[in-house]
Automatic annotation (TrEMBL):
One function term, GO molecular function aspect: histidine-tRNA ligase activity
Annotated organism of origin: Streptomyces auratus AGR0001
Quaternary structure note: Homodimer.
Localisation per UniProt entry: Cytoplasm
Catalytic activity: tRNA(His) + L-histidine + ATP = L-histidyl-tRNA(His) + AMP + diphosphate + H(+)
UniProt name for this protein: Histidine--tRNA ligase
Length: 420
């Protein structure tokens, strides 16, 4: 062991489990690639103001959880706590919205950083795969994204997840609701921190998990009763499209989300086997974000699914993904001459696309065969001096144990034939 450990709240992805993470990323991105989303990658850090303005000055993410720092050159930067603000910034910077093809549909996959109190499912470094559809107001786009996330989770075999759906209203109706809610909340017995939250972000109080707060919230004004006609009609269409697609959801008026940029449609995917960190993914519409970061009006919608929590959800459901063994053929040379010859065969096999590994370091037969078995390979290729003198190598089927001598010149072909 080294004297160093992974920093608190982080962990390393190590084979063979790391293959599951790659497969999850692949499974989440596959339906996006198939639906017109192009890949985007942005820097791991941005100007801190982008997140302060975008995610919201009053959110926990910005006030407590951001890894913000000043560079030697005096720039104020932050490790990205989420992807939406960065992706929108990049799209605006590249003028993608001016190319005459709205919505701009983008997907991404990467690491995000939040200085949170670590616990199972909540880390300081975590991975998301996300999607953003920028520049179009159309309920079918909101529905598309929810349907694609549902499709990704189902393709992974997950069943015990639920989709919570809400509408947060728009810039017309939400301020009216906000004021009514503030009036109500100011009449309650709340601690100082919560009273401050009532002033800056009253909707978040509805999300307070404490019993002392929750029991006072009966009778709070409901956003549903304040939605304007346009928001109601929009939300109804999203609901109808989901229903028509056979995607089940639950209306959840308490769903407010932890980022300030949302308008209208908001949703969360929760998994019932994960305890308190049950949100495996979330997203919604953010029609005002572009203007908040200095861009034109670009109504947009998106989501991000957490890779770490999706892997935990698979574990909770006892799902083992069908991940093909990384190695198909394992070559075992016995002696110097065999080493040279088999290394050539290995190189040829690899060039023709056969996943092949080699017993390095002059291992003895017993040790090398153990490595061959551990690698998950279907075939072992073994050769010693006597084999080479006869112009053959031994091809051993590691499942059946059957071994055949194959002419050296024909072995690559024979292997490709056996593996199909
Ligand atoms: P979010 O709900 O903050 O949304 O994060 C999305 C997902 O990332 C969560 O559901 C969870 O699975 C995962 N996640 C978040 N924080 C952690 C953590 N500390 N440890 C492990 N996993 C975590 C967003 O980030 C928005 N940008 C989503 C979005 C995209 N909205 C519109 N477009």
């Amino acid at each position: 062991m080294s004297t160093f450990k992974a920093p608190k709240g982080t962990y390393d992805l190590i084979p063979p489990q790391s293959a599951t993470y790659l497969a999850v990323r692949e499974a989440i991105s596959a339906p996006l690639k198939n639906s017109g989303y192009g890949y985007i990658e942005t820097p791991g850090f941005e100007n801190v103001e982008l997140f302060a303005r975008g995610v919201g000055e009053s959110t926990d993410i910005v006030t407590k959880e951001m890894y913000a720092f000043e560079t030697k050159g005096g720039d104020q930067l932050a490790l990205r706590p989420e992807g939406t603000a960065s992706v929108l910034r990049a799209a605006l910077e590249a003028n993608l919205h001016k190319a005459g093809n709205l919505p701009v549909k983008l997907w991404y996959s990467g690491s995000y950083y939040r200085y949170e109190r670590p616990q199972k499912g909540r880390y300081r470094h975590f991975s998301q795969v996300g999607a953003e559809a920028i520049g179009t107001e159309d309920p079918a786009l909101d529905a598309e994204l929810i349907i694609l996330a549902d499709q990704a989770y189902r393709a992974l075999g997950l069943r015990n997840f639920r989709i919570l759906l809400n509408s947060l209203g728009d810039k017309e109706c939400r301020p009216v609701y906000r004021a009514a809610l503030q009036d109500f909340l100011r009449g309650l017995e709340l601690d100082e921190d919560t009273r401050r939250r009532v002033d800056i972000n009253p909707l978040r109080v509805l999300d307070d998990k404490r019993e002392t707060v929750q029991k006072q919230l009966d009778g709070a004004p409901k956003l549903r009763d304040y939605l304007c006609e346009a928001c109601k009609a929009y939300h109804e269409q999203v609901r109808e499209l989901l229903t028509a697609a056979g995607v089940a959801f639950e209306d959840d008026e308490k769903l407010v989300r932890g980022l300030d940029y949302y308008t209208r449609t908001t949703f969360e995917f929760v998994h019932d086997g994960l305890g308190s960190q049950s949100a495996v993914g979330g997203g919604g519409r953010y029609d005002g974000l572009s203007e908040m970061i200095g861009g034109p009006a670009l109504p947009s919608v998106g989501w991000a699914l957490g890779v770490d929590r999706t892997v935990l959800a698979l574990e909770a459901e006892g799902i083992a993904l069908d991940i093909p063994a990384a190695t198909a053929v394992y070559a075992v040379p016995l002696g110097e001459e065999a080493r040279r010859v088999l290394f050539g065969v290995v190189t040829e096999l690899r060039r023709s696309g056969v996943a092949t590994d080699f017993a390095y370091g002059g291992k003895g037969l017993k040790n090398a065969m153990k490595s061959a078995n551990r690698s998950g390979a279907r075939l072992a290729l073994v050769a010693g001096e006597r084999d080479l003198a006869e112009g053959v190598v031994q091809l051993k089927d590691l499942e059946s144990g059957e071994q055949t001598a194959v002419a050296l010149g024909a072995v690559a072909e024979e292997i490709r034939r056996t593996l199909g």
